[in-house]
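2024-03-11 09:14:02 INFO worker-7 job=invfold-0412 stage=load source=structure_tokens
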């Protein structure tokens, strides 16, 4: 709880500072309630917002002893810096739509198992050499074996290049959503083993007597104007150091997960939300003889979650309430099928389903210990759904014990979190016998619809059929999709619009204010 309060205090400070309230005098409610008229507090004079404090440079954190290779570097500060050096075949915009970048066009063969990528002409690496199909093939083959990208490429059987300079990706199962999986940064294959491989991005890494920094490329193939020419890099050995550097204004941007361990960032800051495909949900034990083997009860449980209140109370703007396992930002999300929360309607339906007999049903909701936000969310849901015969107890277990209980089916409900791939493939979560299907959900129609969605050329229509089916069968109860929080110092950067593929999406539209620029704007 202490960690939760610390993080809530930090977020409150980041989102606008603390408000001061004047408490009214004590009142004898028994004698004076009828005649009581609240005295409005004095309205303090509004003070003008202070002028922004512009930095001398737009600095970023990075770990100087770790690689910047985008295939093998860790998530976080290294990934942020790497996104300025390298570019992918496709990038995901804020609605999770794949936009062609290094790939100009693509087509499928008649089986839907081979995708041919036509690379964009005129793309050059920072050393002046041209992008080739071999660079793409070698990078994707490394990615397929990497810790970060292996899962999303698990259904890729082969990656080759032909004599025409095209890249051919062969799949084991059809997947028209493949482009959404290819936001993997490409490096020059002959430099892959170097700490800083050569990339096609807008900046190049420089290390000299003046330190380490990123320098804008004059020959960047996109030819777009960049908001700043040089970006100094400041060594940060861990997240705590990066937080301190931001608080002391030695760096100008930091990305944090607001639901993770408390951030040590202090002071006011400007916040931007970065959408993610991280889904939080409630899973059901659907085994025969269990309460939630009944699809109607699972569906009613899902309808009984007041998602909007939960998300607003717990995560402010850092999550999006969702009734389906697809981000509400995606064009695949069927908003018109979503049902508004109505407790009275849920109670009436539960009574009709025989859940008001007076015989208490003790249910357990498992959560993994150590996540204060998840624990608070679970308790909110448990309290909200302890209706009629149901009494839900939240049980926290260490991760190993939590996972053991899930694998053994020793639960009624569990609070889960999963990072979905951007093609919204739910196979490993919902298909019969799937590795993440801890609830034992078995529905052959679901498996068929999952396959049809993956192979469909009309993805919105196929998604609608699948998600309508999941709404009625309720193998899980989606809660929300998390957002990351991008912090910048107030007034320093404008036009920030982070996307799932990276913080610097649309960087050419940013306006960064530095001390020199501020001085030029002053009247003579």
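2024-03-11 09:14:09 INFO worker-7 stage=emit residues=524
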């Amino acid at each position: 709880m202490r960690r939760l309060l610390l993080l809530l205090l930090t977020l409150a400070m980041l989102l606008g500072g603390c408000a001061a309230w004047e408490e009214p005098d004590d009142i004898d409610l028994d004698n004076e309630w009828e005649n009581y008229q609240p005295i409005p507090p004095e309205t303090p004079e509004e003070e003008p917002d202070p002028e922004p404090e512009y930095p001398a440079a737009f600095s970023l954190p990075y770990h100087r002893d770790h690689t910047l290779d985008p295939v093998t570097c860790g998530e976080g500060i290294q990934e942020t810096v790497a996104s300025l050096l390298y570019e992918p075949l496709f990038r995901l915009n804020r609605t999770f739509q794949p936009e062609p970048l290094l790939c100009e066009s693509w087509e499928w063969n008649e089986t839907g198992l081979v995708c041919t990528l036509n690379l964009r002409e005129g793309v050059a690496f920072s050393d002046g050499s041209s992008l080739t199909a071999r660079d793409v093939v070698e990078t994707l083959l490394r990615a397929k074996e990497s810790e970060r990208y292996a899962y999303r490429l698990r259904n890729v059987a082969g990656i080759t290049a032909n004599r025409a300079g095209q890249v051919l990706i062969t799949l084991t199962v059809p997947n028209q959503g493949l482009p959404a999986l290819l936001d993997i940064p490409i490096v020059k294959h002959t430099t892959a083993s170097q700490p800083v491989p050569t990339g096609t991005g807008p900046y190049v890494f420089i290390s000299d007597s003046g330190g380490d920094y990123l320098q804008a490329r004059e020959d960047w193939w996109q030819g777009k104007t960049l908001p700043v020419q040089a970006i100094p890099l400041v060594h940060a050995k861990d997240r705590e150091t990066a937080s301190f550097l931001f608080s002391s204004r030695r760096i100008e941007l930091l990305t944090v997960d607001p639901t993770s361990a408390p951030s040590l960032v202090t002071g006011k800051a400007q916040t931007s939300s970065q959408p993610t495909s991280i889904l939080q949900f409630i899973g059901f034990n659907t085994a025969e003889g269990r309460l939630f083997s009944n699809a109607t009860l699972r569906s009613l449980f899902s309808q009984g979650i007041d998602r909007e209140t939960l998300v607003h109370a717990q995560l402010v703007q850092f999550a999006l309430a969702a009734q389906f396992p697809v981000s509400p930002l995606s064009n695949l999300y069927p908003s018109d099928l979503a049902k508004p929360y109505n407790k009275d309607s849920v109670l009436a339906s539960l009574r009709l389903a025989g859940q008001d007999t007076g015989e208490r049903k003790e249910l357990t909701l498992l959560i993994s210990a150590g996540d204060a936000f998840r624990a608070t969310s679970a308790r909110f849901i448990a309290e909200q759904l302890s209706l009629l015969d149901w009494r839900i107890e939240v049980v926290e277990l260490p991760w190993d014990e939590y996972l053991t209980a899930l694998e053994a089916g020793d639960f009624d409900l569990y609070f889960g979190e999963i990072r979905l791939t951007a093609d919204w493939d739910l196979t490993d979560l919902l298909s019969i016998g799937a590795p993440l299907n801890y609830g034992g959900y078995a529905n052959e129609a679901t498996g068929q619809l999952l396959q049809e969605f993956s192979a469909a050329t009309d993805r919105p229509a196929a998604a609608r059929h699948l998600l309508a089916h999941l709404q009625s069968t309720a193998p899980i109860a989606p809660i929300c999709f998390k957002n990351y929080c991008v912090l910048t110092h107030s007034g320093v950067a404008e036009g920030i619009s982070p996307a799932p593929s990276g913080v610097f999406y649309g960087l050419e539209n940013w306006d960064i204010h530095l001390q020199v620029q501020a001085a030029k704007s002053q009247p003579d």
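2024-03-11 09:14:09 INFO worker-7 stage=report msg="Residues 431 and 448 are 9 Å apart (CA to CA)."
2024-03-11 09:14:10 INFO worker-7 job finished
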